[in-house]
Design a protein that fits this description.
The protein has two helices and no strands. It starts with a helix and ends with a helix. The protein has one domain. By secondary structure, the chain is mainly α. 75% of the residues lie in helices and 0% in strands.
Length: 85
């Protein structure tokens, strides 16, 4: 009797596993973003996307730094003008 339940449970687990792997919500370790297979487009599209994002972040960071430095220079000039008067 226990052998019968063992066989039934193994078959049930296997059938559930195939249902899980066929579902769009299952992500295996071989898949990356949007279901792209690892190694297939990993180095092309995803890496280009990441590099573009890093460049835009860098540009945004440098623009913010430039604005901050401009404000600091304006405040220094204003302080010098005030101290001269």
């Amino acid at each position: 009797m226990s052998i019968f339940f063992g066989i039934v449970s193994v078959l049930f687990v296997r059938s559930q596993k195939s249902v899980l792997t066929d579902s769009p919500f299952f992500t295996s370790p071989e898949t990356l973003w949007n279901g792209v297979k690892r190694g297939e487009k990993e180095s092309s599209e995803y890496m280009k996307f990441q590099q573009k994002m890093k460049k835009t972040e860098r540009k945004m960071y440098t623009m913010e730094q430039i604005k901050i430095h401009e404000r600091i220079e304006e405040k220094r000039e204003a302080a010098q003008q005030h101290s001269l008067q």
